[in-house]
Write a structure and sequence with these properties.
alpha+beta; tt1808, chain A; seven-stranded mixed sheet; two-stranded antiparallel sheet; 11 strands; 21% helix; 37% strand
């Protein structure tokens, strides 16, 4: 597969975006995806509960790993993007020495939990998979509250994930190498709202 190309020039440079993001109010989270500034909504209560559910599962099944919330990542080809993942799974100590925007080399899995906003389809289902794949992140886990499903993307190659598996809330979900975790997603059925 060939990566999608964006023919429009970026709104600003990465350096200009990082300066803008440093001065944004705490109530606003900014990302720089495909050359455009995006506003990421602040999580609601169910979003936070889903994160905690996943954190507990990861800690009990893989105590050698850490699930960090709201992590800034350098994404897309040649790290020209800046995405704030809802969570990243890394080996214990994997973010030591990293600044606000981490290179993705230690990231085993990026996680997004859909929000109740009009941009979630484009951001979480289209742009984020391409950006995370281009950064070489082995697994992207999308917990889709709108669709009551979990999508596991893996096998990044050429700026795209070659494989994706979509399963309904309630089904067991296997997170492939290098994560090697199987999730019982039944608790998500009560958190979809």
């Amino acid at each position: 597969m060939t990566p999608r190309t964006e023919h429009r020039p970026p709104q600003m440079s990465v350096e200009e975006f990082e300066e803008l993001e440093r001065h944004a109010p705490e109530s606003v989270w900014l990302e720089f995806v495909r050359g455009k500034v995006k506003v990421k909504p602040v999580p609601d209560g169910n979003h936070s509960e889903i994160y905690m559910w996943l954190l507990e599962r990861c800690m009990s099944l893989r105590p050698d790993l850490r699930l960090h919330p709201e992590r800034g990542l350098k994404t897309e080809t040649y790290r020209k993007g800046r995405a704030r993942a809802d969570a990243v799974l890394v080996p214990k100590g994997g973010l030591v020495g990293h600044g606000e925007w981490s290179d993705a080399e230690t990231v085993l899995m990026a996680v997004e939990i859909t929000s109740r906003d009009s941009d979630t389809n484009q951001r979480d289902r289209v742009e984020k998979p391409d950006g995370y794949a281009a950064a070489g992140i082995p697994v992207y886990l999308l917990i889709d509250r709108d669709d009551c499903s979990v999508v596991v993307f893996d096998e990044p190659e050429g700026g795209r994930y070659r494989h994706a598996e979509k399963l309904p809330f309630g089904a067991p979900v296997h997170l492939p190498a290098p994560v090697h975790i199987t999730l019982d997603t039944a608790p998500l059925e009560d958190l979809a709202d």
